[in-house]
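To the wet lab folks,

You asked to see what we're planning to order before we commit. Fair enough. Below is the target structure as tokens, and below that is the sequence we designed to fit it. If anything looks off to you, flag it before the synthesis order goes out.
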């Protein structure tokens, strides 16, 4: 992780602690330890053990010269962002502490936080994609991301090509060649490779290492597009894509990172080279998250490892129960992958199977609805990654507007129930699923 240097004013955090302890006698401290204090010095805030919430729209400058310097950073006259706090659309203490801590999980050089996962994704795309450019993306993507790329960016002259998440290296080479051909014809460039892994609700994993090798082979080193990946489903604990060749990692912090189903926020991690333009775009359009949400996320990150570990253990137990149940047709759970290319990717990229999976009930919509309506502990709601177990029906809810042929191609059937396991007692959850299946 980046060492904190009080004299270095070019970083993302400026209210820097005097001495952030990141290692002890050569022993590097783990992220779960750093979540309790990294990036914050109580002595800069009257000794307040926890950071105060800085509710202000603007910040006083030490001098006119300092104000000028800060604006040089904001406007991009000098790279690296603002050295000082200027105005709350650009930055703030709570957001900067949060960015420092978020970056720790993936040893990212820089991090930015946003008002939602979608505002993070939109700001990323607006920053890096121009007219006549081509976006290469895996499919399926989160529905709003697909809408943004296919229906909104197209209004500004950007186009896209997509490939199935489980594509082989050869298929990746072919899609990159096609994108280069399109870009040349249109007079633009291949602006970005955008991935989502695992895909929702298919749970298909993308081979990030293979895509990085394909991009490195297809483009000159100084002209290659960045590889961005939505890591919401397995991050920050079970998958760290920057280590596998991705350049930019995206999060809906609404999910596991927030973890209590009580806030909406987003994040982008990566090298300054890629995040600089995204920061400038965020400054312009104001998609930064608010100080209260940033404070809530700081609280959430203190327990993210505990929560995700417990949810992952629970999911393993619940899936083991469901697997042998006579009313269950099948499970889409990363912990049960058969030997093959997907399992190979899982073993190279992931350290856990997550706690969100697909449950196929024997029957159709009627049986699935009966099961959902009978659940007593699990709540009937979309979203995932919270402390509480949630269940939903993609075909009738999140993917209702997807055309039938595409639903069929993606395996979004009427008997598919999407489950996100929380941190309740595993045996209680099994009892709940057992009695709900009995009602089918
Ligand atoms: C929820 C989600 C998003 C969108 O995030 P919001 O915080 O709801 O804007 C993007 N990608 C994935 C994979 C998600 O699950």
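Sequence we intend to order:
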């Amino acid at each position: 992780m980046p060492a904190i240097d009080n004299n270095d004013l070019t970083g993302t955090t400026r209210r820097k602690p005097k001495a952030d302890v990141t290692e002890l006698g050569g022993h590097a401290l783990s992220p779960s330890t750093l979540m309790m204090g990294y990036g914050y010095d109580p002595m800069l805030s009257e000794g307040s053990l926890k950071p105060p919430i800085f509710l202000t729209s603007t910040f006083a400058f030490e001098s006119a010269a300092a104000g000028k310097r800060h604006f040089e950073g904001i406007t991009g006259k000098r790279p690296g962002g603002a050295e000082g706090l200027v105005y709350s659309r650009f930055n703030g203490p709570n957001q900067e502490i949060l960015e420092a801590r978020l970056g720790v999980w993936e040893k990212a050089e820089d991090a930015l936080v946003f008002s939602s996962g979608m505002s993070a994704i939109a700001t990323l795309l607006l920053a890096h994609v121009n007219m006549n450019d081509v976006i290469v993306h895996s499919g399926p993507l989160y529905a709003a991301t697909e809408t943004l790329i296919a229906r909104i960016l197209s209004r500004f002259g950007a186009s896209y090509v997509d490939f199935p998440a489980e594509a082989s290296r050869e298929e990746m080479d072919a899609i990159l060649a096609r994108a280069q051909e399109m870009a040349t014809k249109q007079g633009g460039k291949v602006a970005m490779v955008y991935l989502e892994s695992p895909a929702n609700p298919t749970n298909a994993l993308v081979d990030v290492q293979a895509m990085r090798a394909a991009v490195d082979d297809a483009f000159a080193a100084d002209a290659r597009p960045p590889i961005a990946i939505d890591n919401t489903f397995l991050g920050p604990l079970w998958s760290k894509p920057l280590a596998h060749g991705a350049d930019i990692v995206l999060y809906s912090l609404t999910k596991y990172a927030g973890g209590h189903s009580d806030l909406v926020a987003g994040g982008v991690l990566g090298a300054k080279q890629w995040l600089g333009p995204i920061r400038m775009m965020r400054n312009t359009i104001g998609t930064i998250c608010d100080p209260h949400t940033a404070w809530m996320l700081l609280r959430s990150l203190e327990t993210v490892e505990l929560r995700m570990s417990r949810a992952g253990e629970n999911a393993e137990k619940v899936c083991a129960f469901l697997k042998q149940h006579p009313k269950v047709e099948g499970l889409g759970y990363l912990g049960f992958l058969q030997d093959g290319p997907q399992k190979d990717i899982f073993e190279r990229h992931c350290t856990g199977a997550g706690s969100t999976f697909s449950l196929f009930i024997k029957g159709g919509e009627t049986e699935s609805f009966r099961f959902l309506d009978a659940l007593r502990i699990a709540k009937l709601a979309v979203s995932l990654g919270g402390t509480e177990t949630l269940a939903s029906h993609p075909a009738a809810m999140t993917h209702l507007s997807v055309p039938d042929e595409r639903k069929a191609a993606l395996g979004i059937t009427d008997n598919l129930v999407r489950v996100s396991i929380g941190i309740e007692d595993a045996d209680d959850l099994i009892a709940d699923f057992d009695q709900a299946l009995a009602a089918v």
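Structural context that might help your review: The chain has two domains: 1-302, 305-438. Residues 387 and 422 are 5 Å apart (CA to CA).

Thanks,
Computational group
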